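[agent] plan:
  1. take the single chain provided in the ticket
  2. run structure prediction with default settings
  3. attach structure tokens to the ticket
  4. add a short note for the reviewer (M.T.)
[agent] executing step 1
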Amino acid sequence: MRSVCLLAACMLLGAATGAASQSYPAKPVRIVVPSVPGGGMDVVTRALAQKFTEAWGQQVLVENRPGGGGNIGADAVAKSAPDGYTMLMTTASLAIAPSLYRKLTYDPVKSFVPVSQIMSTYLVLVVHPSLPSDLKGLIALVKAQPGKLNYYHMGPGSGLHLTAEMFRAAANIDFTMVIYKGDGEAVPALLRNEVQMSFLNPTASVQQVKAGKLRALAQSGTSRGSAFPDVPTMAELGYPEVNYVGYLGFFVPAGTPRDVVNKIASETIRVVRLPDIRARMPVWGGDSAGTTPEEFGAKFREDIARYAKIIKQAKVPPVD
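[agent] step 2 finished; step 3 output follows
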């Protein structure tokens, strides 16, 4: 009798899960972006949210929760109901966090389910136009004025922070780290010369570089990105250790029904393959991906191990 009841319970659970997937979304969906409005991640998220809204017939809203190198937004999603109505858009900072922070309010592996990688990304080293026009000159200037120049990043654990630490270690230079809540705040500071340099997402920098208001010196990827075909990689310039290839991707809270996860992933894959979205990827600073939850989960676990090794080699100090 007990086995019959157990079987019936499993059948009911399966039916409920399937029903959840079929009716999802039955109300507005929230995508949490752990940066300020106007930055690269925010721009991409809003473009995708509009496509989701059109396809699902429900509003998909973007909520900016900046600060803490992405941890404030991640924590908010980790504590949300596991029903698919709260999603996290994030970068590789989620894979960096376990090796950098002594204490986190969430577990990057156990608190989330990877849904889909949207795109792979790279960063561009930009400087105020009053600085030297090539990497060699910049490094010479920084060495002549140790600690005098300001470098922006979003906080410990962000891709911008890790790339800065790799650059500092590889070139044996010292500069002052200045934290802003996102590119939307930092780019105006760069234009005002309050911050002199940073590795930025191409979305946040390409128009300013084209206008001559910022200068691009190098890229962090393994090959030249299509938004900056004339800008060499750090490896080309003799610094292969400065190699950051990140991503943007969706996560949901652990415990979200698998059918709902798969439905979000399927829609993400469809959207990132739309011609108008693919055409904007180079300006956004990357290449479209659109992976399954299983593929993204495997990459996420690999990245946790990879960034742990990079952090150890660069001797990045742990963060409380």
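[agent] step 4 note for reviewer: The two ends are 54 Å apart (CA to CA).
[agent] ticket updated
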